[in-house]
Structure formats: structure tokens, C-alpha cells
Amino acid sequence: MATYPLDRTAYLLVDPYNDFLSEGGKVYPFIEAIATEVGLLDNLRKLDRALRAHGVAVFIVPHRRWEPGDYEDWRFPSPTHRKIMARHNFARGEWGGEWHPEFAPKPGDTVVQEHWGASGFANTDLDLRLKQKGITHVIIAGLLANTCIEATGRYATELGYHVTLVRDATAAMQHDMMHAAHELNGPTYAHAIVTTGELIASL
Amino acid sequence: MATYPLDRTAYLLVDPYNDFLSEGGKVYPFIEAIATEVGLLDNLRKLDRALRAHGVAVFIVPHRRWEPGDYEDWRFPSPTHRKIMARHNFARGEWGGEWHPEFAPKPGDTVVQEHWGASGFANTDLDLRLKQKGITHVIIAGLLANTCIEATGRYATELGYHVTLVRDATAAMQHDMMHAAHELNGPTYAHAIVTTGELIASL
Amino acid sequence: MATYPLDRTAYLLVDPYNDFLSEGGKVYPFIEAIATEVGLLDNLRKLDRALRAHGVAVFIVPHRRWEPGDYEDWRFPSPTHRKIMARHNFARGEWGGEWHPEFAPKPGDTVVQEHWGASGFANTDLDLRLKQKGITHVIIAGLLANTCIEATGRYATELGYHVTLVRDATAAMQHDMMHAAHELNGPTYAHAIVTTGELIASL
Amino acid sequence: MATYPLDRTAYLLVDPYNDFLSEGGKVYPFIEAIATEVGLLDNLRKLDRALRAHGVAVFIVPHRRWEPGDYEDWRFPSPTHRKIMARHNFARGEWGGEWHPEFAPKPGDTVVQEHWGASGFANTDLDLRLKQKGITHVIIAGLLANTCIEATGRYATELGYHVTLVRDATAAMQHDMMHAAHELNGPTYAHAIVTTGELIASL
């Protein structure tokens, strides 16, 4: 079990948008089954409470909010970019692109630049802002387990951070994606893969 | 089906070491079943022949060859680093860390810096050397489907490249890892996921 | 003299804020002498007109707009960060942090993420967005010659771009800083260092 | 005056090759006057002794050793690349590309990947290897003040490190280059610019 130097640990909350986390959100129906099964919302609440109570720094790691024109003149939009072009996920100025009200940034939180792809580190200021707070350990939660969470975690390891995944504070569209994230790929790069309960107990 | 501007396309061959590709290699026993099933060696031979015949630039993307002391004074070695510390995979100066004789670099190939983690781009010169050759499309093959290949592919997309995975020119330790790489995660970031035969037919 | 493939060339306009370019701006008094001497404003107007007329992509590369709290909890703010903390340069929501009205982004321009330090590439999406437009050549103008322009240019070369500096479409606080930027350091990394007139003549 | 947490401080010695530091080296004649004036060799000896005695981690940050073919098929070699193509500086396998015998790596030192441009961080593993040793402060010495040292220092600041330049443990080809490095540009990004004597006194 990892132990956390609390003043050097950050909680990275990835993409806490209504589109992902709220009933009526554009992506929510696709993850609802697994989110319900693992208790996603309740675990995010518990994490939020416990980590803040222990003084852990909170970083909000948001996906690019879709704007008209996005990706349309890009040379090589990825399949995910194409989906977003069609569905307008996390549209800027719309409810879906607003923070889920329980997980909006609080005073003192760091909101990093929006990421265009899947990794919260790629083409953003996340690494710099973690370094400027002296962070060495990151605990990553939010959506989706096998896309943004996994990509952010893989980058964190390449950048030299200690990486923790929280298996029931994330979700995915299919069970095999959860399995891939936590049983197949996570164990190759993550330093700890724990439940919300285990994490809180270890603080 | 993607089409390839041949003078702007590179073939990234990841980790063509004896330890991965040759009988007697340290990792080979763990991938042998799937390598045999997909015809890995024969497909790598076909790709190598066809891509070179079409003038596609070949980049060798090698994992750090283990040396005594590696990772021992690192703050946060990953689970993969710990495995390598125990097993001495791709040891520098040993047969396992030599190129498989059929896939050694040829004159004119680019051998990029060794990567410490899973992505061939992280902490190496791969992006610069691709840019300096004017490369915009990368075709990624080699080992392992869900670790170095997937990490290299994810980074390539974040960096703005067009990314192709070749599903039978790679292997993994388990079937569900191949499934995760090509059916679950690849489709979120890769622009094309093809067989060796399909790729060659499209050149 | 360099020639420019116009569909692969971008004009990077760095920090076109009132604080830098307008009378009454916080930094303007410190650069006014040299700006006047080289004809900065008029040259930026000429560049803007000529490059847009030739269809060159325009990228606005903005410095972080100061907000209350900025840098205060950073571990190692640089001397430049400390100056900004004291002076509130480019304050968000104030006139000084607004675009100079003649150089505000126009429809179709790309406004990249704000940079925290001196390089427009560091901790931002500039490289990705250039790549996604297929850009290979960058023409860099704006402020200051020996800080943000030089840092952006040095990074551009390290990233594999063709780099042009425009010696009279920038300014600095002292003459020796202009000399350092264009006669000492620029010649080590920039592919072309030209006047506005020379650049326009070469399009 | 900065103080240094010795277990989190690294000494980055940039390009300690015979071509730079030894009589008979290819670049040495161009820097000899200033090197002699500031006492470069003797100061590097003092730094080496003092920093090792205090247990500071030593990182060797080497320029790419020239090999036949280097840069010849590059799209945009920089002016510095072109010079190296003509002069074969730091040729691999030749005396000029060997370490100056007094500054060769010692057991326990970290030798990072060779850099292709000017910054020791660009396209190398320097950031990762510093992070994996828990380094937060870098003291940069070696050659040249306004090229590799300055570029490495600028990147270090963008990456969130505390940066110290040592004004008499470097050299340049001209006095105005030293002035630019330490009086004009360094003061914008470096957290400390000191003499060898001042640095040693502060340990």
C-alpha cells in the first residue's frame, strides 16, 4: 500500500463536466451502468471530502470544451475528435460543458488548461503547475477509465510522478474497458491501483 | 482505408530485440503463443520488405537497454521498471539486448534514443527526428501491443501525427491485451487499425 | 533569403496586448524608444496586411494574463514572474490585458493557450495546433525581442520548425538587448533574420 | 543569495568535451580569450570539487557527438547545425568528442542523452532523470554561455526548476555574448547568477 506525503500529493480530477457526470449529460447514458455499479458519484464525493480534509491539493484537469469550428480544419482529427465534432460534447457556454455542481473548483484549487486529446498533460500546463506546487504524487480520478484517465496516468509515469488510480472513482462504457484500465494496462505503469475506501484509509 | 503519402510516412519499429522476438529471448516465452497465432515474425518481414520497397522511412524505436544500476536510485520506478530490474530485459552487451538479426537497422534507417518508459516519444528525440524528415504519418509495429505500441501511438496522436496500428504485426501476453489494444483503446486515438495485408495493399 | 511555402507558413504574433503596444500600457514606456526607432507599430501593420493577403495562417501567442494570486504559491517564480506579481502586467479583465485593437484576432486566426513563462511553446498547445494545420515555417514578431520572441524562436528550432525573426517588428528595453537578440543569439538558431521589407518582398 | 537543499540540487555540466575545453580542441580557440579571462578551467575544477564534496548530484549534459551523415537529410538544420556539419565538432570516436579528462563522468554521475540543439532538455531524458532523483535546483555550468547554457537554463525555468548560472564557470566567443547571457537575458529567467566563489560560499 502506498503512503502519501500529503503536502506533495495532488488529486487530479479529470473532466468533471455535466456531460459526463449528470443525468441528462451527453455522455452520461453511455457510462451510467458502470458508474452506478461502482458507485462513481458517491466515491467522488468521498474522495473530495477526504482529500480536501487532509489538505491535498486539488487540480481540475478539463477536456477542451467544444466550440464551433473545433477540429474542422485539423489535418488529422482522431476518432475521438470526430465523435466530439458530431456530438458537441462539453460545449462551451452550454450546461453540458459546465462543471457538475458538486465538483466545481473551489477557492485555492488549480484549474489547468484544457486538453485537446486524452492526456491531461499533453499540450497543457499541468506538469508545470504540479512542479510549481512541489507535487510528486498524483491520485487520478474522473472519466473515462480507459481514455483520459489512462492517458493522463501513462504520461504522469513518463514524467516521473508517482501515480495512483482509483478503480471505483472512474467509469467506462464497457466492462472490458474497466478491466483493461485496471487489470491489464494500469498494472504496467501505475504505482498503486486502489479503491476509494483503501485510498482514504491510507491517508 | 487510409492512404499514405509515402515521402511523409515513417515505419516505427518498436523494440526489435532478441529478448522480444527470438527463441531464447527473456520475454519471448510470454508472447510466443500470440506471436505465433497472428504470424508476428512473418508479418514483420512482409512489412519490412514492402515499406522499404516503397521508400518509407524506417525508424527503430528502442527500449532502454538494461544496465547495472538502472532504476535502483529512482524515486518512483514503475511496475515495469521493477520487472526489468529483476529480469534484466534487453541487457546492454548481451544477446537479448541485440537486434533480432532480421530487423537490425539498415543504412539510412534512423535509430532514435532509447526510451525509459513505454512511449517511444517520451524523453527521446523521436518527435524531432520525424519532424526533420517531414514525417506526418506513422505506422507502428513491434512489441507489446498494449504497452510500448499503445503508449507510442497515444503520444503520436497527442503530437499531431496520423497514426496507424498493425494488428497482426505486434503481440501481447494475453488475448485480452490484444483486444484492449485494438478493439477498445486503439479505436479512440488511432486513425487506422489494419492487418499487414491490408496495409501493404493500400501502399 | 528564405522562401516560404505559404500554405505551410504561420505568422506568430506574440503578446499583442495594450500593455505592450499602446500608449498608456504598463510596459510600453520601457520599449517606446526602440519601438519608435524601428517603426514597430507600422511594421506590425504591414506584416499583418501582407501576410494575411498571402493567406498565411495567423497565430496569436499570448502571455498569461495576470490574475490575483498568480505565482504567489509557486515554489520558484522567476524574476519575470516577480515583476509581473508587482506590476500586474496584462491583467485579465483590464485594458492592459486586452488586445491592441489593430492586432486583435480575426475570424480564422488561432489563439493558442497563454504561456506562463517566455516561450509560446512551453506548457501550451502551440506545437500541436501548428502541426494540425501542417505548418512547417514560423515567422515570429511581437514583444520582447530578447525574452518571449527569443524563447519562442529557440523552442521552435528545437521542435524542428523553420524559424524567421523580423528585426524591426519587435522591440526591447535596451539597444544591447536588440543586438543580443538579432546579432548574437538569433544567428545561432534562426534560419532567417530579416526586416519587414525584406520579408514582404520575399513572399 | 539562494540557498541550496543539497539533496535536491544537481550540477549540470554541459558539453565538457575536449573540443570545447582542451588546447587543440576545435572550438577552444574561439573561447580561449574569455575562458582565460574568467578562469574557466580552474573554476570548473573548484565547482567539481566543492559540489561533489557536498554530495550534490552531477549530471553530464552532452551535445550530440557529430557522426557522418548528421543533419544532411534534415529539413531545417539551424545555423549551428550547419557549422557542425562543416567542422565536425565533438566527432564521435575522435579526441575532440571525448570528455576533457578532468571532467569525465565519475561513478554515480548521470550522463543524459545527447542533445541535438542547444537545450540539454530538448528531445532528451534530462527532465525525467532529474525528477527521478528528486532534483528541484539546478546549477548550470559549461559551454557556451549564450547558447547551450542559456537554452538549458531557459528550459529549466519553463519546466519549474530553480535555476542558477555561474558567470565565471562558462565562456563565450565574444564579450557581448557574456554580457547578454548574464546581464541581459539571465536576469529574466534565472533565480541566481553568481560567481564560483559565491556559489561555493553559499553551500
Automatic annotation (TrEMBL), chains A, B, C, D:
SUPFAM superfamilies assigned to the protein according to its UniProt record, in alphabetical order: Isochorismatase-like hydrolases (SSF52499)
CDD domains: cysteine_hydrolases
Residues making up the signal peptide according to the UniProt record: none
Short name of one Pfam family: Isochorismatase
Keywords: Hydrolase
Domain Isochorismatase-like residues, every copy: 9-182
GO molecular function per UniProt: hydrolase activity
Name this polypeptide is given: Isochorismatase family protein
Organism: Noviluteimonas gilva
